[in-house]
Write a structure and sequence with these properties.
Blueprint (H helix, E strand, L loop, with lengths): L9 E3 L7 E2 L2 E2 L6 E5 L11 E4 L3 H11 L3 E2 L3 E2 L10 H11 L2 H19 L5 E3 L15 E3 L1 H4 L8 H32 L1
Parallel strand pairs: 1-4
Antiparallel strand pairs: 2-3, 4-5, 6-7, 8-9
Length: about 190
């Protein structure tokens, strides 16, 4: 759609390290993509990255990250000191050594959650479309209203109270399952 409307499309791929869409690694879509390396993400070291196949955008980004400098002295525009510290880069390079293992471990945790959630009627993980891969940074639960018991109780305050009790019960059950996964992980080492 962006191409049809002649719009520049930029992707927020903050938690997309290691992910694919239709079998293609993230980092090649739109005019550019931005990745985060914050401690809450899968690939952690601090900082981030911009990927682009647009030479003019790449040149501008390089200029902006270095105080807006052009060459050794002149400034073409205002810019921050956006360069990554060397120690962060070293941590990132070291993290690449085990990155596939980290993703595999996250996939194993997701499989455990799927197995344990199968015991709760009407609750499942959102899942990933075939041909795509996820870093599994966050998991979304899907509730089937009828199987979980939300669709048959009507509307209004009493119904909402019943729904809240059902959801709280499910959260309690999920917490027990999460504890079981943690115990299995501890035994696995």
């Amino acid at each position: 759609m962006a191409d049809r409307k002649s719009l520049a499309l930029f992707y927020d791929s903050a938690s997309g390290s290691g992910c694919t869409y239709r079998v293609r690694r993230l980092g090649v879509f739109g005019k550019a993509e931005i990745f985060s390396f914050h401690a809450t993400k899968v690939f952690t070291m601090e900082g981030g990255a911009l990927t682009t196949n647009v030479p003019a955008l790449f040149g501008r980004a390089c200029q902006l990250r270095g105080f807006g400098q052009i060459g050794d002295v002149d400034c073409g525009r205002a810019g921050p000191n956006g360069k990554m510290m060397e120690v962060s880069a070293l941590v990132g390079l070291r993290a690449l050594d085990t990155f596939d293992e980290v993703l595999a471990h996250r996939a194993w945790i997701e499989a455990e959650y799927e197995r344990l959630l199968a015991a709760i009627p009407g609750v499942r993980l959102q899942g990933v479309v075939p041909g795509n891969t996820s870093s599994r940074l966050y998991e979304a639960l899907l509730l089937d209203e009828k199987r979980f018991g939300l669709g048959s109780i009507g509307r209004g305050p009493a119904a909402r109270e019943h729904q809240m009790h059902a959801i709280c019960g499910a959260v309690d059950a999920l917490q027990k399952h999460a504890n079981a996964v943690r115990a299995r992980l501890a035994r696995r080492g």
